[in-house]
């Protein structure tokens, strides 16, 4: 596919195809339904649209009938399935430098977000930003966390290192071996997707480090960064900055533009080109976050209102009533299965969230939106 819009590397689909080879998965039909190039799975530099990247994970979990399966599938794959990106971590000098490499080189994996690595006096964390408004991402992030934790386990040569895992989604109905292994150290319904490390672990040397080999790996990674880094999505930067700014009260066009280093008019022109506006994009991000908090967490209503940038609970309640037709309490109390089937329900999704063209998650919604432009 052309490297425009939001994309992710397609090798993750190849891995899913290979490890689920005995499952009843119709990949040609999935390619048609979710609008990605099937041939890209075997292209070392292939990419797929970010909406398909999310939707296929939900679809496969649904077919397998296990809403926790992605944890185990990706926590047990071989190191090297994702080529140079795997070795950037496994062969780094220390855990700190391995996490720094993830953050620096994440643009070779996707242009929809940047991995974050930060540390303070007590420890550090790796965080995957929440992609509001790009469809249901729950199964995809389960897979990413399973894979990242496996990388950490191998690099440190520890079966279950002392890490804390936070997930901004609800606990699955099923229970994976991964959850059992990290029992008591996985927090569902959090406000972020993050793995945290104690400070003593960050300086720990990694067992596979070889200085000469790592220089070769870095050279190769920089070459890929030159190729894929140029396809950054400005729209993703805007949407992600809006999402990150909700609770700070700085989610305005002048402030977001300043954070991005762009003029207000440049931001407006970019959004107009994509068939939306700053107001529409901000509203969509806030609405998507509201749905996630209400259905995927047990956070108090006042805290959700704060996280969404509402100064008053009454204002938040009116907004939810406008978006979903019912009060926040009724949204949270409404019967909803936590199974993959419910998460992947196209009909239910289109009724609750009618996204602008750049953020829809289902093929039918994409075509319907394009037809109305």
TrEMBL record:
Query: What InterPro entries does this protein's entry cite?
Result: AraC-type_N, Homeodomain-like_sf, HTH_AraC
Upper lineage: Bacteria, Pseudomonadati, Pseudomonadota, Alphaproteobacteria, Hyphomicrobiales
DNA-binding keyword on record: yes
Compositionally biased, Polar residues: which spans? 344-354, 361-373
Signal peptide segment: none
Give the transmembrane ranges: none
UniProt region (Disordered), positions on chain: 330-373
Does the keyword Transferase belong to this entry?
no
Q: What is this protein called?
A: AraC family transcriptional regulator
Q: Name one Pfam family in it.
A: HTH_18
Enumerate the UniProt keywords alphabetically: DNA-binding, Transcription, Transcription regulation
PROSITE patterns the record matches: HTH_ARAC_FAMILY_2
Please give the superkingdom of this protein's source.
Bacteria
Q: Where is the HTH araC/xylS-type domain?
A: 236-334
